[in-house]
Amino acid sequence: MLHLKHCSDEQISWCIVDEILKSACTLAQDPYGNYVTQHILETGKPHESSQIILKLAGKFIQISQLKYASNVVEKCLKYGNASERDLVIEEFIAESDNNDVLLFQMVMKDQFANYVDQKIFDMGTEKQKETFINCIKTHLSVLKRFTYAKQIVARYEQLTEGTAQDQA
């Protein structure tokens, strides 16, 4: 067992970060641990952020619906590199492409996941935004009925109104 009192500051830091990375998924969902995970995404080394994002891959939709973990997913979008952002966004877009209507609507109207959806509008590529807008368009009448989806609907209308005016 490693005794921290015999380690340099750099060794201690490495050991702590290594343990955090091993538990990234659990920490992301914890009321206090999510702040630790967010801190590494914001200020950690690029490979540390990448490891967190890869640990969460395949779970972004699920954890975006959790109070604390949704903040971590937002930070993944904000601080991840382009390919890491693609990984997160494509998970959301893939669900809509798979005709999983109920899951897509559930994520859009979720009280926590809707913040992640809004972040996709901010961080996605133009093509990803276009795909996302088309998915929303398909479900617009249903989404308008839900409180937590109203922000998504407003962003959709703002973006499509600007496009309609550009084309006129």
Automatic annotation (TrEMBL):
The keyword RNA-binding applies. Keywords: Repeat, RNA-binding, Translation regulation. It comes from the Eukaryota. One of its GO terms (cellular component) is cytoplasm. GO terms for molecular function: mRNA binding. SMART domains: Pumilio (SM00025). GO terms for biological process: regulation of translation. InterPro entries: ARM-like, ARM-type_fold, PUM-HD, Pumilio_RNA-bd_rpt. Residues 1-160 form the PUM-HD domain. Pumilio repeats lie at residues 19-55. SUPFAM superfamilies: ARM repeat. This is PUM-HD domain-containing protein. It comes from Saponaria officinalis (Common soapwort).
